[in-house]
Amino acid sequence: MTVDAVGGYRQIDDALTAGRCVLLDGGVGTELLQEQGQDDERLWGFESLASAPDDVLDVHRRYVDAGVDVITTNTWALPTALQNGGSVRRANGRPIHWMEIARRGVRVARQAIADGGRDGRCAVALAVNGDLDTPEGIDVVSVLARALIDDPPDIILFETLSVLRPSLFAVVEALQATGIPTWVSFRRCPHGLCGVYGQHWGGPEADAFGHAARRFEGMGVGALLVNCIPPDHVDGIVSYLRDFTDMPLGVYPNLGYYTSAGWRFESEIGGPQYAAMALRWRAEGAQIIGGCCGTRAEHIAAAGKALDGIPAGRERRFEREGGEQHTTPSPARQPDWTDKRGRTLYPLTLPEIDRHTGVARPIPGSHLLWRHLFLEGVGAHQRCLDIACGAGLQTIQLALNGAAHVHALDVDTLAVGNTLANAFRNGVADRVSGEAADLFPWLPEEHYEVIVASLPQTPVGPAAGLASHRPTDYWGRGLVDQVIAKLPHALAKEGIALLTHTSLLSRERTMQLLAERGLYAEVVAWQLEPLPTEYLDQGEHLAQLEQHGEGYLVHTGESRSLVVYVLEIRHGRTGANGSPPWASR
Fold it and tell me: 0.70 exceeded by the pTM?
C-alpha cells in the first residue's frame, strides 16, 4: 500500500532546486528533558507524546518560530518501543498503542506549523530510528503506512543508522514503496562508523559508505545525511560523499551526551558558535542543516540567519588554510611506545610461533616468562637451556636476544621438531639445537649460563596413574622438583635459572629443596591467571589441596585464580645483598 506525498514536501524540493539551504529543527527530545529538569529519559521520544503532548507542541512551535523548513516528529524511539511491546502508558495510566503515537506525532507537528502560520511552507518528517532495520522491519513499514494513510507525513526520516546490512536496503525500499519521500541519516564521519561521543569502530571501510550513497540515490532516496555525532566530526563528510552522489546531502550533529551522571550539554557552544560551524558545512556543500541531541531552537535560529542567501560550496576540508585540515590539525609528536632497550612496544613484536598439531598449548606462566626474557634481554652471548620447550617460545626469544646457543629439551618429539621449525622461521636456526628427553632420567652433560623452565604443575588425584612407574604427581610439583634437583649439575657457577612456580605449590618445600642444594631464589615477575580447565577437572582433589596443602589460590567472589611467579635461581644461600631465599627483587 502506498500513500501520496502531500504538498508540504513541495517547498523542500523547490528550495533544494533553487539552491537554498533547507533548515531542520534541533534535538526535540533533549530539549524536553532540559525543560523538565530530567536526567533520565522518561520524556524521551515515544513516551513524551503519550504523557506530555502539550510540551512537545511547545517545542515544535519554537522551531516553527525559528524559521525551520522541517519539523521532525518526536517518534524517534518508535521502532524501539515496538520491540518492547508497542504501547506505553498515558499520564492517566491507560495504555496507548504505537500506531496512535505515530499519528499523534504527525498531528502535533502539523498543529505547531499551523499555529505559526507556516502551512504549506514547513514540512513534517516522521522520525524513526535504526532499530527499524530488523527482519520484521518491512512488515512494520507496511502497517505504519496504513496507520498514516489519512494524514501522512511529508517525509520519513530514517535516522541514526550505522551498519550497512542487506536488510537495511530492503527496509529502505519498503519505505520508498509507501510513496512518502524518504531521507536516511547515519552516525558516520570521514573515518567510518562514529558514535555519539566521537568514538570510531573497526578498521578502514574504504569507500563502503560512498558506494551505499550511490545505491541509495539509485533507489530514489530523497536525501542522505549524518546526525548524532559531535560537530567536529562532521567536517569532511559532505565533500567525501559528493564524490559518489549528486543526491541532496545534509548534516545535523549533536551538542549533548548521555552519561552515567545524566545528560550533559555543550553549554559553551551558543547560537553564534553554531552558526559559524553551519557556515563551514555549507561551504563544503551541505544542502540540509539542523541539529540533534542538545541543540536548541536558538542554535537553529542563529544558523538559519547566517545561512540565508549563502550558496552551497564545494570546498574540501583539506584545502582549507593552505592545505591543512580545519578541525584536525597535525598533533604534536608524541613519544614512541618503546621499552628501556629502545624496542617498540606498539605494535608488540612477538616471535613468529606456529604450534604444530599435537603439541601442547602454552601453560600458566609461559607468556609471563617470555615477557621477562623480552624485557630484560636475558641470554645475550650466553649458552642457554630451555627445559620443556613446547613450541619454542622461550627458545626463540633467547636466540633473538643474542644467545650464543640455545638447547631445547622436551619429552615430546613433536615439540622438539616444532621448536626447531620455529627457529628456522625466525632466522635463528643456526644457534638452536633440540633433544627429546624425559626429565626424570635425564642428566645434564654440560653447564649453561641461562636455564629457563616453564613446567606443567597440575596436581593429580591419587587414583590416577596407578599403573605408571612414576609416582603420582599429587601436589603438581614433580617436574619442578626434578629441575631443582638437577640445577647444581646444569647451572654454571655465575649462571641463572628462571623457573615458573604456581601459588598452589608449597613455597616452604621449594625453599627447603633450594637450600639443600646451595641455591638461592628471588621473585622477578608474577601475575594472576584464571584457573586452567585441567585444574578445575581435579574437582575434589583441588579442594583437598586448598584445605590441607601449603599453597593457595586467590578467591574473588565465586572465581578462583592462580598466581604464577618467575623465580630467578642462583648458586649461593643468600642474595648479593644478603637477602634470604625467596626474596622479591
Answer: no
